[in-house]
Amino acid sequence: MSPSATRVLVLNSGSSSVKYQLLDMRDSSRLAVGLVERIGEQTSRLTHTCLGSGDTREQNGPIADHEAALKAVAEELTKDGLGLDSPELAAIGHRVVHGGMFFTEPTVIDDAVLTEIERLIPVAPLHNPANLTGIRTAQALRPDLPQVAVFDTAFHTTMPESAARYAINPKIADRYRIRRYGFHGTSHAYVSRATARLLGKAPEDVNVIVLHLGNGASASAVEGGRCVDTSMGLTPLEGLVMGTRSGDLDPAVIFHLARVGGLSMDEIDTLLNKRSGLFGLCGDNDMREIRSRIDEGDEEARLAFDIYIHRLKKYIGAYCAVLGRVDAVAFTAGVGENAASVREAAVAGLEGLGLAVDPELNAVRTDRARLISPAAARVAVAVVPTDEELEIATQTYALVGTGSGSAPVGNNS
User: Fold this and answer.
1) DSSP string, 176-233
2) Would you please indicate which residues are annotated as catalytic (active-site) residues?
């Protein structure tokens, strides 16, 4: 790799969208950011911003597929002198949702890696196909450039078997790859380390409970920089109450809905993943709208909020027990970073666990990592903005920057 190659393009390919950022890893600065939406529709839109000039451009009109989308992205970058043919581009880093137990670290992509990602499609049918499409398209555009997969599940592969296993027959579990994988791993990794820095300590010296609260939501217990438990499981449905997902549920509810309610498996899947959570409880999955409705006396919104907080408190308490010693609880993602009322309610009543928030500090709005607990609190409570793109770029550059070209992986499963 050329010494001048210090840029990393981060791609997050969804089923009908591509998010991207171009970063210069000399100082982790962003050079360009953008989003392609509604791929495959007549109303596709590409929004591109060059951070150097501050210019934002928008394209509206049909973008047929991911190949066309990435070609359009490449053209926009070229207009800013940041094209994919630049010798300063070191690698392309791809977010891949599911890596199973095979991928425990960022991995240089080759045919064997693609085959394994494809083999995991049955446990990530909504995500891995789109991730694969983005990878293959990027490879076609720059076949000479290292492409690196950074997996959402990788950070959670350090969980002990006692946390990762479900209490079902292990032969059946292994045959169908049924175990708790966890997701949002790049966010949990970034935030747990950033929280340690905020405390002036090394990650290996800190135990952190990370609460990633967005439309999708997950918690993790991080002991000395390693994940030892997380709330999401085989899929992102398990765990906390989310925007449209139910989170934890008695599995017999599914049998009941099928046998008594006559719902098909697809209908139940849609119900639990897309029409449950906050949306299912009160018809709204925007926390700002829910709080506004509560202020107006809406009891349906109040109950949804209370259920959301109750589940959150249960996980905080559970992870205090799992970790034994907790140095910090860190809130992150859209709700965690911006909803002071959620942070206050989640910690209220947990003074016996050493948790409290300072109302004035909690009310401050800023995009910087900060403590919101009283100075004398036994456990720090922090708000730490997540940066998954920077985490992907950092992991990608650390791998290709060694010049090894090897693909570190875990044990096949």
Assistant:
1) TT-S---S-HHHHHHHHHHHHHHTTS-GGG-EEEEEEESSSEEEEEEETTEEEEES--
2) 152
